[in-house]
Amino acid sequence: MAGTMRRALVPVADGTEEIEAVTIIDVLRRAGVEVTVASAMPALKVTASRGVVIEADCLLDECGNGPWDLVALPGGMPGAEHLAGSELLMGIVREQLAGDRWLGAICAAPVVVLGRHGLLGDRRATCHSGFRNELRGLAAAVSDDVVVRDGNLVTSQAPGTAMAFALELVSCLLGGDKRRAVAGPMAAT
């Protein structure tokens, strides 16, 4: 796919962790990825976990124009529960995994969206420390690493790891050189 613009889907919902969602969206766009922010709620505007209002590009049911190069799931509660409750989104997530396309999940999302639906399987993963014990029963191995890549799945821990997570997603889609080019001006590593 050299020369083809990469496409990413970032679903959001009421209660989504705003630092995670905005960091993912921003960093991917800085890398030149075409990002579609889709609301899993009945309205375009969602109220994130700390009261920040995020306006999505479209409703989730209006953006079924996959396949996506990446689907990145922000955490936050009850945002992750809303994402997990969307049958449409869960179908998209299953297609990503089955199609060996990139899937990212951070904070509560590795457990609430993926693990509780039996989608972690034999993969190594990480998540928010508050969900770590539950993750032990849902993934093959639990890692303390800030970001974990296992096959086409990338997981991370919390709002404080969102930059490292988003930059890893850039690496997955576009390689290490692009990651460094995006990270440099932001003084990120």
TrEMBL record:
InterPro entries: Class_I_gatase-like, DJ-1, DJ-1/PfpI, Prot/Nucl_acid_deglycase. Residues 6-170 form the DJ-1/PfpI domain. NCBIfam families: not_thiJ (TIGR01383). It comes from the Bacteria. The keyword Magnesium does not apply. This is 4-methyl-5(B-hydroxyethyl)-thiazole monophosphate biosynthesis. One of its GO terms (biological process) is glyoxal metabolic process. It holds the Pfam family DJ-1_PfpI. The keyword Repeat applies. Keywords: Repeat. GO terms for cellular component: cytoplasm.
